[in-house]
Design goal:
It is a single chain. By secondary structure, this protein is an alpha+beta fold. The strands form 2 sheets. Strands 1-4-5-6-7-8-9-10-11 form a 9-stranded antiparallel sheet. It has a two-stranded antiparallel sheet with strand order 2-3. The radius of gyration is 19 Å and the shape is globular. The longest helix is centred in the N-terminal third of the chain and has 26 residues. It has one domain.
């Protein structure tokens, strides 16, 4: 009995140590995106100068916003701190009115959770109040293209996080864009 109890305690200690190491890795792995400025903008009207588009983002961080062949959405460029790094830059915004999601994208440098910087495209999606999927207003996702080793990520690809209505990340890892649901799918979770 004493031996089984000692083994159980040892197994618990190992599990806690592994969990702590994984949490520390997640806290220092990947881009450091803070979508607060985009969340504040979600649901506000597009400017009169907006053009029409069927997609948001570019390259590997591009997502279709068209729900049908004739559907298009409002697009414009706005100076905003899209990734929360403290730098206001021209960013591309798309208001997907049918799905109640504001998408924002940029190309360039971004901060990493490990203190380094990365380079590439970022796409952020924020759910607005009254969205038809009944997601909490202010919740959403971000996704970034990373190279192997960039921001502490082992493999090249797309790294993303889902966040709640307060901007707190709820799941992060290697991800793919889920255009049909205005979301991302975490394929290799790290948090």
């Amino acid at each position: 009995m004493k031996r089984r109890m000692t083994q159980a305690v040892l197994a618990l200690l190992v599990a806690v140590a592994v969990g702590t190491a994984m949490a520390q890795t997640a806290a220092t792995q990947g881009p450091a995106v803070k979508p607060g400025a985009v969340a504040k903008r979600a649901g506000t009207p597009a400017p009169a100068s907006a053009t029409k588009t069927k997609a948001a983002g570019k390259g590997t961080v591009k997502a279709s916003t068209a729900n049908s062949a004739t559907d298009d959405d409002s697009a414009w460029v706005e100076s905003i701190d899209v990734d929360g790094d403290g730098n206001v830059e021209d960013s591309n915004l798309v208001w997907d009115d049918e799905d109640g999601v504001l998408l924002a994208s940029k190309e360039g440098t971004f901060a990493c959770k490990n203190g380094a910087t990365g380079e590439g495209g970022i796409l952020i999606g924020v759910n607005a109040k009254g969205n038809p999927r009944k997601r909490p207003a202010g919740s959403g996702f971000w996704i970034a293209a990373v190279d192997a080793g960039e921001c502490g990520v082992a493999a090249a690809g797309l790294w993303g996080c889902k966040f709640d209505a307060t901007g707190v990340e709820t799941a992060c890892g290697m991800a793919t864009v889920d255009e049909a649901n205005d979301d991302i799918v975490i394929v290799a979770a790290k948090k």
